[in-house]
Amino acid sequence: MHEPYMFEEMFAVMAQLGPVMMFWFMVLPALVAVLLLAILYRLLRTREGATPAHDDEARMIQEMYRAMGRMEERVEALETLLLDPDGTAGRARHDAGRDAPRGQGRE
């Protein structure tokens, strides 16, 4: 019966095969493992990096919503200034400008 290969015997066989075989059986798998870990790390990091973008978008939408509320208040204030309850104040000011003689007021 043959004993199972021990590490010393495996290294002796690898030494006989030469550096090319050592590259294919030791260095190349290690490089592939490192590359896979680097890709996995980058993928996980970009997922975590996507969260602040969503936070920025949510903050921007909230600011727009607040600005729209302020704009609505301003429009209501303008409507109140231009129109009284029966709607004559705004028209009276507008018509007063038309009734003035064209030659007067410009000197």
Automatic annotation (TrEMBL):
InterPro entries: Phageshock_PspB. Residues 83-107 are annotated as: Disordered. Keywords: Membrane, Transmembrane, Transmembrane helix. Residues 92-107 have a biased composition (Basic and acidic residues). The chain crosses the membrane at residues 20-41. It comes from the Bacteria. This is Envelope stress response membrane protein PspB. The gene is pspB.
